[in-house]
Write a structure and sequence with these properties.
By secondary structure, this protein is of the alpha+beta class. Helix content is 23%, strand content 43%. The chain is built from two helices and five strands. The protein has a five-stranded mixed sheet. A hairpin with a 2-residue loop joins strand 1 and strand 2. Belongs to the bacterial ribosomal protein bS16 family.
């Protein structure tokens, strides 16, 4: 089953997250199928590739709770 979730990246105590599509059995920092955007919680900067996100949602990918909240704020879902 595909999940749209956050993948941690960045330096220690300066984290940022990539929004990726992964198999739900893979590790959090494992290999992603595709990157859909990024989010930096420290600077509130974020980028979402809406076309790719909608494509994977149509294929049946389920967003995690945090990603679901991000998509709601961006009015994608």
């Amino acid at each position: 089953m595909l999940k749209i979730r956050l993948k941690r990246c960045g330096r220690k105590k300066q984290t940022s997250f990539k929004i990726v599509v992964m198999n739900n059995l893979d590790k959090r920092d494992g290999q992603a199928i595709e990157e859909l955007g990024f989010m930096n919680p420290r600077t509130k900067e974020k980028y979402l590739n809406i076309n790719k996100i909608n494509h994977y949602l149509r294929l049946g990918a389920k967003p995690t709770k945090t990603v679901f909240d991000l998509l709601n704020k961006a009015k994608i879902i």
